[in-house]
């Protein structure tokens, strides 16, 4: 396998979410994460730029201190948008997270923090990273044509053909009176339950799934979610004709309450649940360093 003349097959890799960062070391020779290397840290995404960057940097240090015997060749980061993935400039604004980082050169900061060359720091869209990881070693392995969605605080999506994975940003597509992201994310479940019961779910979808075995209202919300998502995805599935649809993200952990309806309504395509959990975006981001479907890094670098 080609590793682009890297000094070692080990990549420090991270997944940045809306309230946390997960980091570890990926072995490119096997596309696996050294499990003892994984560190997950909660981050206040509404804090100052200095505090956020310090939290991320400290996380990297924790990983590296645990594995001093594994010399890294670079840093890969699965990052939410809007973000210029080629230059490393953050353009997140109006999303109630990381707004203090707007306009900052995150690539340069990471390179200086780790004392590595700028070109050894690479960014990839978080949903794209997740689906790329699943295609490499998870639920999409062996498939040539895959669509994937990530369901969590936001609605991410990517398409993979012949192992080249690209962000398709379906979350920004119009759906009903707003956009798809407003319907296929945690906040839709919270809003729907509060409208029906007057009760605010502080535990999000996890709390709702805990109620579902005894609550008709909770089960009906999951069913409505499946109906909405199948209606929305059907057009894109028809256009792209993937052989499989991969469902990723924290909401997928409640799949027993919505997946049967989704399978029934999208009966022309195989639907698979993600297998790699938090390792998927770490592996998918690190794959930029060895050519495993990383053409998307160049093609979608400026999708803001």
Topology-level CATH name of the largest domain: Nucleotidyltransferase, domain 5
Strand pairing plus helix content: what structural class?
Answer: alpha/beta
So, CATH architecture of the largest domain? 2-Layer Sandwich
Q: How many angstroms does the end-to-end distance come to? A: 32 Å
What integer value in Å does the Rg equal?
Answer: 19 Å
Beta percentage is: 15-25%
Sequence stretches where pLDDT stays below 50 over 5 or more residues: 295-304
Query: How many structural units, i.e. domains?
Result: 2
Can you tell me the CATH class of the largest domain? Alpha Beta
CATH superfamily assignment of the largest domain? ATPase, nucleotide binding domain
Query: Number of helix segments?
Result: 9
Main β sheet profile? 6 strands, mixed
| pLDDT averaged residue by residue | 91
> What is the helix/strand order?
EEEEHEEEHEHEEEEEHHHEHEHH
The percent of residues in helical segments reads 25-40%
Shape: globular
How many DSSP-defined strands? 15
Features:
304 residues, alpha/beta, Nucleotidyltransferase, domain 5, six-stranded mixed sheet, five-stranded mixed sheet, 34% helix, globular
């Amino acid at each position: 396998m080609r590793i682009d003349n890297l000094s070692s097959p080990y990549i420090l890799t991270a997944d940045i979410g809306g309230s946390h960062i997960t980091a570890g070391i990926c072995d490119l020779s096997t596309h696996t994460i050294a499990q003892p290397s994984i560190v997950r840290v909660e981050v206040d995404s509404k804090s100052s730029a200095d505090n956020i960057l310090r939290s991320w940097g400290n996380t990297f240090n924790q990983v590296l201190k645990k594995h001093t015997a594994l010399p890294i060749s670079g840093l890969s980061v699965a990052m939410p948008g809007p973000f210029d993935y080629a230059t490393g400039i953050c353009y997140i604004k109006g999303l109630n997270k990381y707004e203090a980082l707007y306009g900052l050169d995150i690539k340069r900061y990471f390179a200086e923090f780790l004392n590595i060359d700028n070109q050894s720091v690479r960014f990839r869209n978080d949903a794209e990273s997740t689906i790329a990881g699943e295609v490499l070693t998870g639920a999409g392995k062996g498939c040539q044509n895959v669509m994937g969605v990530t369901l969590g605080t936001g609605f991410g999506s990517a398409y993979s053909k012949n192992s080249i994975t690209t962000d398709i940003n379906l979350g920004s597509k119009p759906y009903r009176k707003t956009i798809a992201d407003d319907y296929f994310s945690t906040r839709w479940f919270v809003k729907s339950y509060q409208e029906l019961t007057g009760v605010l779910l502080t535990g999000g979808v996890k709390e709702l799934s805990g109620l579902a075995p005894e609550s008709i209202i909770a089960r009906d919300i999951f069913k409505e979610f499946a109906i909405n998502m199948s209606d929305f995805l059907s057009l894109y599935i028809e256009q792209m004709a993937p052989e499989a649809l991969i469902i990723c993200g924290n909401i997928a952990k409640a799949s027993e309450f919505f997946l049967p309806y989704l399978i029934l309504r999208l009966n022309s395509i195989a639907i698979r649940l993600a297998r790699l959990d938090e390792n998927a975006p770490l592996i998918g981001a690190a794959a930029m360093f060895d050519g495993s479907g990383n053409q998307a890094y160049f093609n979608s670098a400026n999708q803001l």
